[in-house]
Design the sequence.
């Protein structure tokens, strides 16, 4: 199916989802306010940590703030795109996924793309504004090359997030469990609030390769700050490609073991 047709379907379901969220404006506003306060407290937490020392693992307070903003931006963007993963389990239990598999859409459309969360959009706009504000406030060197590298690595980060969410959806098919898996994922992602370089040992290995928080958060921030090296670039490209292939293979494996309501 052509990408433009898939995008057209996504626009339709996104419109329906937005209308549903606008039906309860008061609760939606409170939800947005809560997200904004969480973002503010995140920045305050990082500032409190890094103001007690001149640097941690060579990173200064201005750099840590940029890392924290980009962490929040990546997290909000993935929440906006893949929010429907949280409601996939009831779809499985009710047998509705059977109908999705016969539709002319990718099999992973329903669990990943059918429920974009528009309540994250105001926060994404604020985070982009904060990123620009702090970047120039702390007088970082601006380079079009760094900006293009950031956009490229941000795209790679979203691709890695797609792969991780597809793995979670596959696990949900095999176990009919999703909540605990997503909370484990989010617990690891929180480690990206600060540069993953500060971690050591087995936990650093997990963040670099198993739940690639480094790929999701740290590398886009390093790209914008001009801290990337050729090995990091090769690492990002290779790991994102491996994760994508593995997640698609595991998704097909899970579909072959899917027991429909008609079985």
Sequence:
């Amino acid at each position: 199916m052509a990408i433009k047709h898939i995008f057209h379907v996504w626009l339709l379901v996104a419109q329906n989802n937005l209308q549903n969220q606008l039906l309860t404006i008061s609760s939606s506003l409170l939800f947005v306010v809560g997200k904004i306060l969480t973002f503010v407290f995140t920045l305050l937490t990082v500032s409190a940590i890094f103001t007690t020392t001149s640097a941690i693992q060579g990173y200064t307070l201005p750099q840590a703030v940029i890392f924290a903003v980009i962490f929040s931006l990546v997290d909000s963007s993935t929440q906006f795109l893949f929010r429907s993963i949280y409601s996939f389990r009831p779809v499985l239990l009710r047998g509705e996924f059977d109908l999705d598999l016969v539709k002319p859409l990718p099999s992973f459309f329903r669990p990943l793309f059918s429920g974009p969360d528009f309540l994250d959009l105001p926060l994404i706009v604020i985070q982009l504004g904060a990123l620009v504000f702090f970047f120039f406030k702390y007088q970082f060197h601006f380079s079009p090359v760094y900006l293009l590298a950031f956009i490229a690595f941000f795209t790679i980060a979203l691709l890695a997030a797609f792969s991780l969410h597809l793995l979670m959806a596959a696990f949900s098919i095999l176990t009919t469990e999703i909540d605990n898996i997503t909370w484990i994922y989010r617990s690891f992602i929180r480690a990206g609030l600060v540069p993953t370089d500060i971690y050591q040992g087995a936990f650093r290995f997990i963040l670099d390769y198993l739940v690639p928080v480094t790929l999701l958060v740290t590398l886009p921030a390093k790209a914008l700050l001009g801290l990337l090296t050729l090995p990091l670039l090769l690492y990002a490209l290779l790991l994102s490609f491996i994760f994508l292939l593995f997640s698609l293979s595991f998704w097909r494996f899970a579909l072959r073991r899917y027991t429909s309501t008609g079985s």
User: Anything to note?
Assistant: The longest helix spans residues 144-175. Residues 10 and 114 are 7 Å apart (CA to CA).
